[in-house]
Amino acid sequence: KITVTANGYLPKSIDISPSRRRPLRITLEKGGQGHIEGIVTHQGIPINSGQSRVSIIYNGISIKSVETDKEGRYSFHGIPDQPVTLKAALFPEDGKSVYLSRTVVTEPGQTLYQDISFDVDDNAHIEGIVLYGNQAPKAALVFATVVLPDGDELLYIAEAHGDGIYSISHIPVGTYEIGPRWIQLPDGSYLEP
Fold this sequence. Notes:
The chain has 193 residues and is mainly beta. It is built from no helices and 17 strands. A hairpin with a 5-residue loop joins strand 13 (139-147) and strand 14. The mean pLDDT is 84.
């Protein structure tokens, strides 16, 4: 499978057979005319450069991505006039990344204002242990995902080290899907469940 991208056009993924010997003709669709802009905040304060990144996902492919500026602002132009996922990442100093995703639709030639706030009711805490068989792995990366009442999805990432214990604090109350992204086994090899 390959993905073809070009500035101003929508990406396209194509399955290719290894036995194919003829050139393949690929037609890309022109990008849209929509605009999206907004401010990313955490605890009421704009998130500055280096601590947040915002991306546009179209058909599962990231087509645009920017860091917020020093006032927490982001802006995109030429967005498809179809549903896209707006995904913001927060990289706090404690090293536990948080991602917020929401589906949006732009209108041709119009600006859609989408402020993103990581200010959620954050009184909950999750902790646990990652085991492989009956032993702790050398390391693991754990995710926890929850859908908020407004439809936004939050994804938290935490690391577990030699004891397999992970902890995610200051998160909203809700029903979470939790699992490992990858596990480093005691022999140093990696397993992606």
